[in-house]
Fold this protein.
Amino acid sequence: MAKTKIIAPTPELDGFLRVRQILALIPVSKTQIYAWITSGILPPATKVSPKIAVWKVSTIRALIDRIDRGEVLDGTLGCAK
């Protein structure tokens, strides 16, 4: 599997990201994001309106750190396929 560079958000920034912004940072599918939520790797988004869900930048930064450490592989926690 080819190594893909993940671009982390700026450390001093702690705002909110929508799913399309997360997909720009982490090269996975939208389906994968929701699979991580189902499996407990990523907490559910916060709904800010009926059609808008967001995650804290710090939450996504922590997820990126876990991916970089190899704790999240192929959508599972510490389980390479």
